[in-house]
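In this section we walk through a basic example: taking a raw amino acid sequence and producing a predicted 3D structure, encoded as C-alpha cells. The instruction is simple. Fold the sequence below.
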Amino acid sequence: MPALPPDRRLPLIFAIILVDVVVGAAIGPVLPEFVRGLPRPQLWLSVGTGVFLGVQLFSAPLLGRLSDGYGRRPIFILSALGTLLANALLLPVRAGLYFTNRVSDGLTNGMYATARSAITDVSPPERLFQNQGIEGAIISLGFVLGPMVAGLLLTVLHVPPPLQAAYVVRLAVALAALNVLLSILLPETHLQRNGVRGAELRAELAVSVNPLTLWARLRAKDAANPGIRRIVLTQVALTLSTGYYFYFVPFVSLGPLHLDARGISYFFMYFGALSIGLNYGFYSYFADRLNQRRAVGWLAALGVPVLVGYSLMGTSKVALYALVTADCLTLSLIQGLLEGLLARHTTEVDRGEIFGLNQAFQSLASFGTALVFGGLSVVDLRLPWLWFAFCLAAVAWLAARRGPGTRT
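The resulting C-alpha cell sequence is shown next.
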C-alpha cells in the first residue's frame, strides 16, 4: 500500500495541534476565577498545574507506546475526546471541578509525544528540523489565537465579569469537539504496527510511574544510540525553566500588575504573535545552518537575564512587553532545536516510545517545578523567577558540555 503524500497529512497534524493549544490557551486567562475564593489562590493554581503535568509522567509513555503499537491516529482521537470531556467538566465554575479537569486533561495530554512522532514519520530528513520548528511556531500561534478568541468573545458580547469564565469554557468545549472531528479525518502516519498486549501495557504503566525505571530505560536507549540521554536531560532543565509559562497567569493577575482576563488575553496575543513570526523565520531560514547544540547554549545564556528581569519589572507594563520581546528572541527558540536533535536519534520502530519517554521526563520536571514555584510564590511572587533563571542556566551548561554521541 503506497504511503500517502506528506503534504496531505502534515496540515491536519498541525491543525490538530493548533486547536488543542487554542483550547488550553483560551481558558488560561479565566482559570484564576476557579480558585479566587480559596486562601492563597496562587498556590492552588500552581497545584492544579502540577497535577495536570504530573499525571503525564505515566500517561505520556503509555500513549507513546500505544501509538507505536496501534498507530498515531487512534491516540489523536483518544486525546481529543479526553480534552473535550475535561473541558466539559469545567461547567459550572467551581474549584473542585477545576482540579478534576486538571487530572482528566492530563491523562490524555500525551498527544504531543504522538504528534512529534507523526511529524517525524512524514518528514524527509532534510525537512525534519523545519517541520519540528513549524510545530513550535504552531504552538505559539495557538497561544495567540486562544486568548484572542476569548478576548473577542468577551468584548463583542459584552460579557459581565461574573459570567466570563463560563462563556470561555463553552467556547473551549466547542473547539475541543472540532478537534475530535479533525482527529477522525487524519490518515494514519505509522504503518509498521505490531499491536500491544495487555501484559505489555501493564508493564509499561508499572515502569512509567517509577522514575528509577524511567532512568534505566533512558540509559538503555542511550547505550544503543549515544546522545539521547544528554538531549533528554537538557530538555528536562529547559522544562524546569519554562514552568514560567504556567506561572505567568497567576503572576500577572495576582501580582503587582493586577491584569484582568482581558489584559491577560492581550498580553498573550502579543507574546504569541511575536513568537510565531520569530519561530517561523528562525526554523525556515537559520536552524539548519547553525550548530544546533551551540545555538541552544547561547540562547539559554542570553535568556537567563530575561527571566531575572521579570522579577524586577514591578508594575511597569512597558517593562513586561520589553522583556517578553527579548524572551521571544532567546529562550523561546530553544524547544524546537532540542526536539529536532532528539528526532534524529529515533527510528520508525521506537519513535513513539522515545518521544513518550522524553515527555514523561518533561512531565516529571513540570510537576516538580510547579511545586517549587508554587511554594516560592507563597513567600514572594518574585522568587519563582530566580528559580526559572537558575534552571535555564543549567540548560546553557548542559549544552556547552560535549560528550559521547554529541551531534550538531
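Looking at the output, two observations stand out. The domain at 6-400 is CATH 1.20.1250.20 (Growth Hormone; Chain: A;). The chain has a mean pLDDT of 81. In the next section we compare this with other chains.
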